[in-house]
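Anyone able to model this chain together with N-oxalylglycine?
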Amino acid sequence: MMDSVLDSLFDKGWVIDRTLFGADEIAALRKACLGQWQDGRFHEAAVGRGSGQERRSEVRSDSVLWLDALREDPAVARYFALLDEVKLAVNRHLYLGLNDLESHFAVYPQGAFYQKHLDRFRDDDARTLTAVLYLNDDWQEEDGGQMRLYLDPDCRESLDVQPEAGTLVLFLSDRFWHEVLPAQRQRLSVTGWFRRQTGQLLW
Ligand code: OGA
Ligand code: MN
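re: yes, here you go
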């Protein structure tokens, strides 16, 4: 991973990279994602964790498919290999102690959105670094679906990220509020969270 990307992540807590994933890798991921979608393998996304999980379509209206079961798929294996490089580089530079990665494909059908939120759960502080990768060719401004990343805790300043193929956004999961604006066409992505070892001691 490029030093400038790591420096920027270190300085600001977020960064956008457009070089790590090549066009072929993105195309293969998009194909895998659409294949699973057409086979009806996705489920409507929930909010919260464990027994606190609930569907709240007024909060988010995307559908997701966790990638654990798809590790044999070459495109998915390549995704995990590249994200592993990110993990190693980030751990070396930033000492975040990133450990495992949980990832899902997400499909936002036309009209879908995800309201402003933080990625860390109230009852589980292991999610440390969020990695969102976009799979959409020729995304236009009027297609909506931008990720609005709020740069300060009071959400005064923000940045809109176009979900264009090959764009990878990294940010600290507990620091940055963000939302997905309503998408005007189908929007595909892979969202991952690097978890760190939490303080639980197992005697
Ligand atoms: C999420 C999320 C952002 C995006 O899944 O938690 O915020 O741009 N995704 O898809
Ligand atoms: Mn999020």
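The first helix runs from residue 3 to 12.
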